[in-house]
Write a structure and sequence with these properties.
The chain has eight helices and seven strands, in the order ααααβααβββαββαβ. It has about 290 residues and is an alpha/beta fold. The chain has a domain of about 130 residues: Trna Endonuclease, Chain: A, domain 1 (3-Layer(aba) Sandwich). The strands form two sheets. Strands 1-2-3-5-7 form a five-stranded mixed sheet. A two-stranded parallel sheet has the order 4-6. Helix 7 packs parallel to helix 8.
Length: about 290
């Protein structure tokens, strides 16, 4: 019966049974006990589930999948980071090794540089010693050349008769005093200038005699040297022309000759050009001069 109690309610159990058996009572009691918002809550919740919860659940599922992928990627990244870290550590060790090697090489270069500096210093001292020895050898060579020249002059004065025999007869080396008087006479008479007089006085030797072919009085201006060079030939030719002025009262003509043991190539060419007589002196002691082969 609607709105009426079927039987008296004596206990809470009677009320509970009544509410179970009467949906109208249950609804009425619910409307009395609950606010409109609470009454509508089931319908609203159902709409929430249908309208908001399912899309949100899908979104959360998608987010979960993304999080899973990110987690997997993070694992891969972690592995790559560990590998890169290992590689960096390896590279660092290699750089340290290379740095140590560079330091070792730098030290070796420094040591070598010091050794080179030491050797350079020693070489400079050796070069200075060689230069000093070279100067000494040159002085000795010049002294020896001068002594050889003086020796050849002495030999030439002693053996002039023998070595000019193919050019002259009744010949002799003119005495220095006789030559001086003849030169000064020519100078005083104006046939020689001061410079020509000084030049002619330096002639090593003058040989007087008669020409083999014509018998005419003739004189040779002779330059004497152990090693005859081109300048010796030119000097003999120049002084022969001056000798003609000095001895014009004694001879019909003059010629030039050079006496030597060794004749350079330049001297040999100049002999032919100036028509100077070569006198090849004997070599009594074979010299060790390397220029002999020139």
């Amino acid at each position: 019966m609607q709105g009426e109690l079927p039987e008296p309610i004596r206990s809470l159990a009677d009320l509970e049974r009544l509410l179970i058996e009467s949906p109208e009572w249950r609804a009425r009691l619910r409307s009395l006990l609950l606010t409109q918002e609470l009454v509508e809550l089931p319908q609203r919740f159902e709409r929430f589930v249908q309208e908001d919860h399912d899309p949100l659940k899908e979104t959360m599922t998608a987010l979960a999948r993304q999080v899973q992928r990110l987690a997997e990627e993070n694992v891969l990244l972690s592995q790559e980071v560990r590998q890169l870290t290992q590689r960096v550590n390896d590279l660092t060790q290699r750089v340290n090794d290379l740095t140590q090697r560079v330091n070792d090489l730098t030290q070796r270069v420094n040591d070598l540089t010091q050794r080179v500096n030491d050797l350079t210093g020693r070489m400079e001292r050796v070069e200075a010693q060689i230069a000093a020895l070279t100067r000494q050898v040159k002085r000795n060579t010049d002294d020896i050349a001068e002594m050889k020249g003086k020796l050849e002059e002495s030999v030439a004065l002693r053996k002039a008769a023998a070595y000019f025999a193919h050019l002259l007869r009744r010949h002799r080396a003119m005495l220095p005093q006789d030559l001086l008087e003849a030169i000064d006479d020519a100078w005083e008479e104006g046939r020689l200038t001061d410079e020509q007089r000084r030049d002619l006085l330096l002639t090593d030797m003058v040989v007087l005699g008669k020409r083999i072919d014509t018998g005419e009085p003739f004189a040779y201006a002779v330059e004497v040297s152990y090693r005859v060079e081109k300048e010796d030939v030119k000097r003999a030719h120049r002084r022969a022309l001056l000798l003609q002025q000095a001895l014009q009262d004694q001879v019909k003509g003059t010629g030039a000759a050079v006496w030597g043991v060794i004749f350079s190539e330049g001297a040999q060419r100049e002999l032919a050009t100036l028509q100077v007589e070569p006198i090849y002196a004997p070599r009594e002691v074979p010299p060790s001069d390397p220029e002999e082969d020139l």
